[in-house]
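U., I forgot to send this yesterday:
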Amino acid sequence: MSQKKPNIIQTVTSYGKQLLGFIRQRVNSDEDAEDILQDVWYQLSSVPELDAIEQIGSWLYRVARNRIIDKYRKQKPESLEDYGFEDEEGEFYFKDILLADDGTPETVYMKELFWEQLTQALEELPENQRQVFIWNEIEDQTFQEISDRTGENIKTLISRKRYAVKHLRGRLETLYQEFVNY
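Result:
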């Protein structure tokens, strides 16, 4: 462990400014660049044997590029609540029902019906799609956290969630129409 610290400190000193400049050119704000750089340093500190990395510069830039890509993917979330269905009066989101707390029997009924339909629709999904959707949407875990937990590639997880959201949107569209015409 004591041998690892000087290598990390030396690496941060050697590559810090260049890497931050590289990241800044590819993101929208300095804050985003600093967050990504911090993620890169964190990942570097998590490497059990720093000497096992043959080309530390290449490794750092590859990790930075991956974090930048992840950042852009997060900016375009594929979330069930991001999808609304349009009616004559504008857009309607299911979260409006789920977050409504007026205590009326209609709202309570709609919440129960929504959760019942969502549960049924989730049960129709393949296990891997259902689990990724639940972890990401309901348990609010990031794709990186899910990847760390399962060992699956982040792109694979994103693809599974996309298929799950597509299925759920189709299944819940009918329920939405019932709510609008209720």
